Amino acid sequence: MKPRQPLTLIDLCDVIYSAGHVFDDLQCTREDTAEFLKVGSVNAIRHNVIGHSGIGHSGDVALLQDLRDVAAFIINQPCAELDAAYLCTLNSTITRSGPLHPGRLRSPHQHIGVSTNYGRHEPPALNTRQLDAVCRRRALPGNTVENRAISLFIDLARAQPFEDGNKRTALFAANSMLIASASPYLLIAPVDEKDSSIARSFNDHLAQAYHSGEDAPVATDLREHGLVRAERVSSVASSATPDEEPSA
Questions:
Q1: 10-106+121-244 has which CATH code?
Q2: Contact 180/106 with Cβ under 8 angstroms?
Q3: What is the pLDDT of residue 28?
Q4: How sure is the predictor about 239, in pLDDT bands with cuts at 50, 70 and 90?
Q5: Residues 108-165: pLDDT tens digits?
Q6: How far is the C-alpha of 204 from the C-alpha of 190, rounded, in Å?
Q7: Cβ-proximal residues to 133 (8 Å cutoff; 6+ apart), any chain
Q8: Short-list 228, 230, 208, CA closest to 219
Q9: pLDDT tens-digit profile of 117-129?
Q10: DSSP state of 6
Q11: 186, 230 in Cβ contact below 8 A?
């Protein structure tokens, strides 16, 4: 069997695009996202992409830069057995479009939560020991790594451990587990550019999981619409070291 080539940023294009579109109202298309990852330079992106494709404002650029940096982190440092320290480091890469204090667990006095159609969800703040426990919940005998990754995403999104960027952190943490475990799949946020009901239903089911603890509907969404084959989607190699790019 031919050995699988290392993943690149382009390989994670669907993860990056879906996280931005479903969680943070990214306005550009998947094609625009792929172009962003291929260009690799903020100045070149602004000259060649903005105004010609769909990346029309600085908020989209900042969000895509953050998502690219998180993707680079899990490519370079994938982890099969996640813990609080790893999650804090992952969240700390979201510096342009995320929390005021990247990588820091939220405190009870901050009263940080998320508004949903079912009311406000403000779970108890977690310390590092409690977040470690959340990471260990899915170690069930016979459970596939894909199901464990889905459960990890749901549990972390529901726990809201950080000031901001929680769903992004949860999605990329799940993919870190998949990459480290050599799964043939990646996990995306369910989305279809031609059918907005896919993302809408997913977000509704995730909100239900927040409030009722009923995970089956959102887990089904992720199994049916979120698991994609981790195959190379482009012949264009993309570096996973964005530090060479000049800052915006």
A1: 1.10.3290.10
A2: no
A3: 87
A4: very low
A5: 999 999 999 999 999 999 999 999 999 988 655 568 999 999 999 999 999 999 999 9
A6: 12
A7: none
A8: 208
A9: 999 999 999 999 9
A10: P
A11: yes
Residue position matching structure tokens 């879906």: 18
Dihedral angle over CA of 167, 195, 185, 212, nearest 10: 40
Task: Determine the Cα–Cα distance for residues 26 and 135; give it in Å rounded to an integer.
Answer: 28
Token readout for 197 is 């009901």
3-state helix, strand, coil in the chain (%, to 5): 55, 5, 40
Structure tokens, 224: 């049916």
Nearest to 243 by CA among 86, 2, 68: 68
**Mean pLDDT over the full length of the chain:** 86
Token pair for residue 202?
């997913």
* 3-class state of residue 119 by DSSP: strand
User: What is the distance of C-alpha 91 from the center of its chain?
Assistant: 10
Write out pLDDT tens, residues 49-79: 444 455 556 688 899 999 999 999 999 999 9
Please give the Cα distance from 125 to 113 (Å, whole number).
10
User: Which 3 state secondary structure label does DSSP give 162?
Assistant: strand
Give dist(CA 17, CA 32) in Å, integer.
9
Mark 120-142 as b/e (b = at least 16 C-beta within 10 Å): ebbeebbeeeebeebbeebeeee
Please count the CA atoms within 13 angstroms of the CA of 194 that sit on its side-chain side. Answer: 0
